[in-house]
Amino acid sequence: MITVKDKVVIVTGSGQGIGRAYAETLAADGAKIVIAEINESTGKDAEKAIKNNGGRAVFVYTDVTRYDSAQNMVQVAIGKFDRIDALVNNAAIYYGIDPKPFTEITEDEWDRMMAVNVKGTWNCAKAVTPQMIIQAKGKIINVASSVAFEGKGMFMHYVASKGALVAMTRSLARELADMGGNGITVNTLAPGAIEGEASVKLGEAMRSIKGFTGKGGPVAGQILKRRGTSYDLVGPLLYLVSDASDFMTGSVLTIDGGSSLH
Ligand SMILES: NC(=O)c1ccc[n+]([C@@H]2O[C@H](COP(=O)([O-])OP(=O)(O)OC[C@H]3O[C@@H](n4cnc5c(N)ncnc54)[C@H](O)[C@@H]3O)[C@@H](O)[C@H]2O)c1
Protein backbone atom coordinates (compact mmCIF):
# COMPACT_ATOMS: atom_id res chain seq x y z
CA MET A 1 0.00 0.00 0.00
CA ILE A 2 1.26 3.45 -0.84
CA THR A 3 0.60 5.70 2.14
CA VAL A 4 2.32 8.56 3.95
CA LYS A 5 0.20 8.31 7.08
CA ASP A 6 2.05 9.77 10.12
CA LYS A 7 5.17 10.61 8.08
CA VAL A 8 6.77 13.92 8.98
CA VAL A 9 7.41 15.79 5.75
CA ILE A 10 9.08 19.16 5.23
CA VAL A 11 7.93 20.83 2.01
CA THR A 12 9.92 23.95 1.17
CA GLY A 13 8.12 26.70 -0.75
CA SER A 14 4.72 25.23 0.07
CA GLY A 15 2.79 28.45 0.63
CA GLN A 16 1.59 28.61 -2.96
CA GLY A 17 1.52 26.80 -6.28
CA ILE A 18 2.54 23.19 -6.65
CA GLY A 19 4.27 23.04 -3.26
CA ARG A 20 1.00 23.91 -1.59
CA ALA A 21 -0.76 21.12 -3.49
CA TYR A 22 1.96 18.72 -2.27
CA ALA A 23 1.51 19.88 1.34
CA GLU A 24 -2.29 19.66 1.26
CA THR A 25 -2.38 16.25 -0.43
CA LEU A 26 0.22 14.69 1.85
CA ALA A 27 -1.66 16.11 4.88
CA ALA A 28 -4.94 14.71 3.57
CA ASP A 29 -3.29 11.27 3.50
CA GLY A 30 -2.31 11.67 7.18
CA ALA A 31 1.22 13.10 6.96
CA LYS A 32 2.44 15.79 9.38
CA ILE A 33 3.59 18.74 7.29
CA VAL A 34 6.22 21.38 7.91
CA ILE A 35 5.50 24.33 5.64
CA ALA A 36 8.93 25.91 5.15
CA GLU A 37 8.21 29.10 3.30
CA ILE A 38 9.79 32.55 2.90
CA ASN A 39 6.39 34.21 2.40
CA GLU A 40 4.82 34.43 5.86
CA SER A 41 1.38 35.26 4.59
CA THR A 42 1.01 32.30 2.20
CA GLY A 43 2.82 29.97 4.62
CA LYS A 44 0.46 30.76 7.49
CA ASP A 45 -2.50 30.49 5.17
CA ALA A 46 -1.39 27.01 4.04
CA GLU A 47 -1.04 25.91 7.68
CA LYS A 48 -4.54 27.19 8.43
CA ALA A 49 -6.06 25.49 5.37
CA ILE A 50 -4.56 22.12 6.32
CA LYS A 51 -5.70 22.41 9.95
CA ASN A 52 -9.20 23.48 8.89
CA ASN A 53 -9.31 20.29 6.87
CA GLY A 54 -8.44 18.19 9.93
CA GLY A 55 -4.76 17.80 8.99
CA ARG A 56 -1.55 18.41 10.94
CA ALA A 57 0.83 21.17 9.89
CA VAL A 58 3.18 23.84 11.15
CA PHE A 59 4.48 26.87 9.30
CA VAL A 60 8.08 27.93 9.81
CA TYR A 61 9.53 31.02 8.20
CA THR A 62 12.41 29.70 6.12
CA ASP A 63 14.79 31.29 3.69
CA VAL A 64 16.46 28.29 2.07
CA THR A 65 19.37 30.42 0.86
CA ARG A 66 20.55 30.69 4.49
CA TYR A 67 21.91 27.64 6.28
CA ASP A 68 20.95 28.99 9.73
CA SER A 69 17.37 29.32 8.50
CA ALA A 70 17.41 25.72 7.19
CA GLN A 71 18.75 24.57 10.57
CA ASN A 72 15.92 26.42 12.33
CA MET A 73 13.43 24.69 9.99
CA VAL A 74 14.82 21.33 11.14
CA GLN A 75 14.67 22.33 14.84
CA VAL A 76 11.03 23.34 14.47
CA ALA A 77 10.18 20.09 12.66
CA ILE A 78 11.81 17.94 15.36
CA GLY A 79 10.43 20.11 18.20
CA LYS A 80 6.90 19.77 16.89
CA PHE A 81 6.83 16.27 15.38
CA ASP A 82 9.93 14.46 16.86
CA ARG A 83 11.41 13.23 13.57
CA ILE A 84 11.82 13.97 9.86
CA ASP A 85 10.80 11.30 7.38
CA ALA A 86 11.10 13.33 4.20
CA LEU A 87 12.33 16.62 2.83
CA VAL A 88 10.80 17.91 -0.40
CA ASN A 89 13.11 20.54 -1.90
CA ASN A 90 10.41 22.37 -3.84
CA ALA A 91 11.24 26.05 -3.17
CA ALA A 92 12.51 27.79 -6.27
CA ILE A 93 12.52 30.94 -8.29
CA TYR A 94 9.87 30.15 -10.87
CA TYR A 95 6.90 32.52 -10.51
CA GLY A 96 7.75 35.78 -12.24
CA ILE A 97 10.84 34.62 -14.15
CA ASP A 98 11.72 37.25 -16.72
CA PRO A 99 12.59 35.22 -19.85
CA LYS A 100 15.41 36.56 -22.01
CA PRO A 101 18.39 35.43 -24.07
CA PHE A 102 21.26 34.13 -21.93
CA THR A 103 23.36 37.13 -22.95
CA GLU A 104 20.91 39.42 -21.15
CA ILE A 105 20.56 37.58 -17.85
CA THR A 106 22.08 39.83 -15.22
CA GLU A 107 24.63 38.63 -12.72
CA ASP A 108 22.15 39.32 -9.90
CA GLU A 109 19.45 37.24 -11.61
CA TRP A 110 21.91 34.39 -12.14
CA ASP A 111 23.16 34.48 -8.55
CA ARG A 112 19.68 34.65 -7.03
CA MET A 113 18.51 31.69 -9.14
CA MET A 114 21.46 29.58 -8.04
CA ALA A 115 21.14 30.72 -4.43
CA VAL A 116 17.51 29.59 -4.10
CA ASN A 117 17.33 26.59 -6.43
CA VAL A 118 20.77 25.03 -5.95
CA LYS A 119 22.31 26.35 -2.74
CA GLY A 120 18.88 26.19 -1.07
CA THR A 121 18.63 22.49 -1.86
CA TRP A 122 22.15 21.88 -0.56
CA ASN A 123 21.41 23.85 2.64
CA CYS A 124 18.20 21.94 3.40
CA ALA A 125 19.74 18.55 2.60
CA LYS A 126 22.68 19.35 4.88
CA ALA A 127 20.37 20.49 7.66
CA VAL A 128 18.20 17.32 7.71
CA THR A 129 21.10 14.88 7.35
CA PRO A 130 22.07 14.52 11.06
CA GLN A 131 18.46 13.61 12.00
CA MET A 132 18.10 11.19 9.10
CA ILE A 133 21.36 9.49 10.11
CA ILE A 134 20.07 9.09 13.70
CA GLN A 135 16.88 7.54 12.28
CA ALA A 136 18.90 5.51 9.68
CA LYS A 137 16.02 6.40 7.39
CA GLY A 138 14.83 9.35 5.41
CA LYS A 139 13.88 10.56 1.97
CA ILE A 140 15.02 13.61 0.10
CA ILE A 141 13.09 14.59 -2.99
CA ASN A 142 14.57 17.33 -5.16
CA VAL A 143 12.11 19.03 -7.49
CA ALA A 144 13.81 19.66 -10.84
CA SER A 145 12.05 20.15 -14.19
CA SER A 146 11.85 18.45 -17.57
CA VAL A 147 13.41 21.61 -19.04
CA ALA A 148 16.73 20.33 -17.74
CA PHE A 149 16.49 17.45 -20.26
CA GLU A 150 14.87 19.45 -23.06
CA GLY A 151 17.34 22.33 -22.77
CA LYS A 152 14.64 24.96 -23.19
CA GLY A 153 15.86 28.45 -24.14
CA MET A 154 15.21 31.92 -22.77
CA PHE A 155 15.70 31.12 -19.09
CA MET A 156 19.05 29.41 -19.07
CA HIS A 157 19.78 30.20 -15.43
CA TYR A 158 16.62 28.31 -14.40
CA VAL A 159 17.38 25.39 -16.75
CA ALA A 160 20.96 25.19 -15.45
CA SER A 161 19.77 25.22 -11.84
CA LYS A 162 17.39 22.31 -12.49
CA GLY A 163 20.13 20.36 -14.29
CA ALA A 164 22.33 20.89 -11.25
CA LEU A 165 19.65 19.29 -9.05
CA VAL A 166 19.64 16.11 -11.14
CA ALA A 167 23.43 15.83 -10.74
CA MET A 168 23.28 16.68 -7.03
CA THR A 169 20.61 14.02 -6.49
CA ARG A 170 22.95 11.31 -7.82
CA SER A 171 25.90 12.44 -5.79
CA LEU A 172 23.84 12.89 -2.61
CA ALA A 173 22.23 9.48 -3.09
CA ARG A 174 25.65 7.81 -2.99
CA GLU A 175 26.94 9.75 0.00
CA LEU A 176 23.79 9.44 2.07
CA ALA A 177 23.37 5.72 1.40
CA ASP A 178 26.77 5.18 3.00
CA MET A 179 26.10 7.55 5.90
CA GLY A 180 22.58 6.28 6.56
CA GLY A 181 23.10 2.51 6.40
CA ASN A 182 21.13 2.20 3.15
CA GLY A 183 18.03 3.76 4.69
CA ILE A 184 18.34 7.25 3.25
CA THR A 185 17.29 7.77 -0.36
CA VAL A 186 17.48 10.78 -2.65
CA ASN A 187 15.44 11.15 -5.83
CA THR A 188 14.45 13.82 -8.31
CA LEU A 189 10.89 14.62 -9.33
CA ALA A 190 10.93 16.36 -12.72
CA PRO A 191 7.60 17.91 -13.72
CA GLY A 192 6.87 19.21 -17.19
CA ALA A 193 4.63 22.18 -18.02
CA ILE A 194 2.08 22.44 -15.22
CA GLU A 195 -1.09 24.52 -15.31
CA GLY A 196 -1.10 27.51 -12.99
CA GLU A 197 -0.54 31.22 -12.66
CA ALA A 198 3.27 30.92 -12.76
CA SER A 199 3.29 29.06 -16.09
CA VAL A 200 0.67 31.33 -17.66
CA LYS A 201 2.75 34.38 -16.71
CA LEU A 202 5.93 32.82 -18.09
CA GLY A 203 4.15 31.79 -21.31
CA GLU A 204 2.87 35.32 -21.86
CA ALA A 205 6.30 36.81 -21.22
CA MET A 206 7.89 34.29 -23.63
CA ARG A 207 5.44 35.13 -26.41
CA SER A 208 6.22 38.83 -26.05
CA ILE A 209 9.90 38.23 -26.90
CA LYS A 210 10.80 39.32 -30.44
CA GLY A 211 11.51 36.33 -32.69
CA PHE A 212 10.14 33.80 -30.15
CA THR A 213 9.85 30.41 -31.88
CA GLY A 214 7.86 28.38 -29.37
CA LYS A 215 4.72 28.10 -31.54
CA GLY A 216 1.98 25.92 -30.10
CA GLY A 217 3.06 26.53 -26.51
CA PRO A 218 4.67 24.03 -24.17
CA VAL A 219 2.39 21.12 -25.14
CA ALA A 220 3.55 21.23 -28.77
CA GLY A 221 6.55 19.01 -28.01
CA GLN A 222 4.64 16.63 -25.71
CA ILE A 223 3.18 13.25 -26.61
CA LEU A 224 0.09 14.02 -24.53
CA LYS A 225 -1.39 17.25 -25.87
CA ARG A 226 -2.54 18.81 -22.63
CA ARG A 227 -0.92 20.71 -19.81
CA GLY A 228 -0.18 18.79 -16.65
CA THR A 229 -1.82 19.74 -13.38
CA SER A 230 -0.72 19.58 -9.75
CA TYR A 231 -2.97 16.53 -9.51
CA ASP A 232 -0.67 14.74 -11.99
CA LEU A 233 2.27 15.33 -9.62
CA VAL A 234 0.88 14.54 -6.18
CA GLY A 235 0.57 10.78 -6.81
CA PRO A 236 4.22 10.44 -7.88
CA LEU A 237 5.30 12.57 -4.89
CA LEU A 238 3.24 10.43 -2.52
CA TYR A 239 5.08 7.39 -3.88
CA LEU A 240 8.50 9.02 -3.42
CA VAL A 241 7.70 9.95 0.19
CA SER A 242 6.20 6.55 1.04
CA ASP A 243 8.03 3.33 1.97
CA ALA A 244 7.00 1.94 -1.42
CA SER A 245 10.01 3.74 -2.96
CA ASP A 246 12.60 2.38 -0.48
CA PHE A 247 14.64 0.65 -3.22
CA MET A 248 14.73 3.71 -5.49
CA THR A 249 17.58 6.18 -5.15
CA GLY A 250 19.56 8.55 -7.37
CA SER A 251 16.73 8.36 -9.89
CA VAL A 252 14.55 10.80 -11.77
CA LEU A 253 10.78 10.45 -11.91
CA THR A 254 9.72 12.54 -14.89
CA ILE A 255 6.08 13.58 -15.16
CA ASP A 256 5.92 15.64 -18.35
CA GLY A 257 3.33 14.12 -20.72
CA GLY A 258 6.20 12.67 -22.73
CA SER A 259 8.10 15.83 -23.62
CA SER A 260 11.67 14.98 -22.69
CA LEU A 261 11.75 11.21 -23.34
CA HIS A 262 15.08 10.84 -21.53
N1 LIG B 1 4.94 25.34 -12.55
C1 LIG B 1 5.52 24.56 -13.45
O1 LIG B 1 5.10 24.44 -14.60
C2 LIG B 1 6.76 23.78 -13.06
C3 LIG B 1 7.31 22.87 -13.98
C4 LIG B 1 8.44 22.14 -13.62
C5 LIG B 1 9.00 22.30 -12.37
N2 LIG B 1 8.46 23.19 -11.50
C6 LIG B 1 9.08 23.30 -10.19
O2 LIG B 1 8.12 22.96 -9.21
C7 LIG B 1 8.34 23.75 -8.02
C8 LIG B 1 7.09 24.54 -7.68
O3 LIG B 1 6.72 25.34 -8.79
P1 LIG B 1 5.60 26.48 -8.69
O4 LIG B 1 5.07 26.70 -10.03
O5 LIG B 1 4.67 26.17 -7.56
O6 LIG B 1 6.55 27.73 -8.29
P2 LIG B 1 6.20 29.07 -7.49
O7 LIG B 1 7.22 30.07 -7.92
O8 LIG B 1 4.75 29.40 -7.64
O9 LIG B 1 6.44 28.67 -5.95
C9 LIG B 1 7.72 28.65 -5.37
C10 LIG B 1 7.58 28.80 -3.87
O10 LIG B 1 8.91 28.86 -3.31
C11 LIG B 1 8.94 29.93 -2.35
N3 LIG B 1 10.32 30.44 -2.21
C12 LIG B 1 11.00 31.21 -3.10
N4 LIG B 1 12.19 31.54 -2.60
C13 LIG B 1 12.29 30.92 -1.38
C14 LIG B 1 13.30 30.89 -0.37
N5 LIG B 1 14.46 31.56 -0.52
N6 LIG B 1 13.07 30.15 0.74
C15 LIG B 1 11.89 29.50 0.91
N7 LIG B 1 10.90 29.52 0.00
C16 LIG B 1 11.10 30.23 -1.14
C17 LIG B 1 7.99 30.97 -2.91
O11 LIG B 1 7.57 31.90 -1.95
C18 LIG B 1 6.86 30.07 -3.43
O12 LIG B 1 5.93 29.78 -2.41
C19 LIG B 1 9.57 24.61 -8.33
O13 LIG B 1 10.73 23.93 -7.89
C20 LIG B 1 9.55 24.71 -9.83
O14 LIG B 1 10.82 25.00 -10.35
C21 LIG B 1 7.36 23.93 -11.81
What profile does the largest beta sheet have? 7 strands, parallel
CATH architecture group name: 3-Layer(aba) Sandwich
CATH homologous superfamily grouping: NAD(P)-binding Rossmann-like Domain
The portion of residues assigned to helices is 40-55%
Q: Give the strand line-up of the largest sheet.
A: 3-2-1-4-5-6-7
Cα Rg = 18 Å
H-E string: EHEHEHEHEHHEHHE
Short description:
The chain has one domain (8-255): 3-Layer(aba) Sandwich (Rossmann fold), CATH 3.40.50.720. The chain is of the alpha/beta class. The chain has helices at 17-28, 40-52, 67-81, 107-135, 147-150, 156-179, 197-207, 230-241; strands at residues 8-12, 32-37, 56-61, 86-89, 138-143, 184-191, 252-255.
SSE layout and pairing:
Blueprint: E1 8-12, H1 17-28, E2 32-37, H2 40-52, E3 56-61, H3 67-81, E4 86-89, H4 107-135, E5 138-143, H5 147-150, H6 156-179, E6 184-191, H7 197-207, H8 230-241, E7 252-255
Parallel strand pairs: 1-2, 1-4, 2-3, 4-5, 5-6, 6-7
Helix pairs in contact: 1-8, 3-4, 4-6
The chain binds nicotinamide-adenine-dinucleotide.
